[in-house]
TrEMBL record:
The organism's place on the tree of life at top rank: Eukaryota
Keyword NAD: no
EC number: 3.6.5.2
An annotated Gene Ontology molecular function: G protein activity
Reactions accelerated catalytically: GTP + H2O = GDP + phosphate + H(+)
Descriptive protein name: small monomeric GTPase
PANTHER family from the UniProt entry: RAS-LIKE FAMILY MEMBER 11
Signal peptide interval: none
Keyword Hydrolase: yes
């Protein structure tokens, strides 16, 4: 039902951080035998005055779980969000490509996803980014 998973927690809510391990374990149980790409994202990095989770904790947990980690502020900067999704899309693409074909071909930075769900996600993500860029450049 999924090609990849993004697990998001709030740096202002320690309980949301504590649930990451359980969520990751649940995802792995649902996908026995396959290594599903997972990215852990700590959101609300801009709220320093109410921060309850240090970035080192997120990085350490992601290392234990064997996945990438990003600390972002969705409200302030879309580049970090873009980078997290870009890495995840690349992992999905590498996983879905047959390793026996040495053929090289030109692809875009975010390769064409194989499943319709990922294609829709990529389309909506690009729309959101282009809207954000238009908003930023028009200011």
């Amino acid at each position: 039902w999924a090609d990849a998973v993004v697990i998001v927690f709030s740096v202002t809510d320690y309980k949301s951080y504590e649930l990451i391990g359980q969520l990751h374990q649940h995802v792995q149980q649902l996908h026995l035998g396959s290594r599903l790409p997972v990215v852990v994202v700590a959101n609300k990095a801009d709220l320093l005055h109410v921060k309850q989770v240090d970035p080192q904790l997120g990085l350490q947990l992601a290392g234990v779980l064997g996945c990438s980690f990003y600390e972002v502020s969705v409200s302030e900067n879309y580049n970090d969000v873009y980078n997290a999704f870009h890495v995840l899309c690349k992992e999905v693409s590498h996983k879905q490509q047959p390793s026996s074909t040495p053929e090289k071909r030109r692809t875009s930075l975010i390769p064409r996803p194989k499943s319709p769900n990922m294609q829709d996600l990529k389309r909506r993500f690009k729309q959101a980014l282009s809207a954000k860029v238009r908003t930023v450049t028009s200011v």
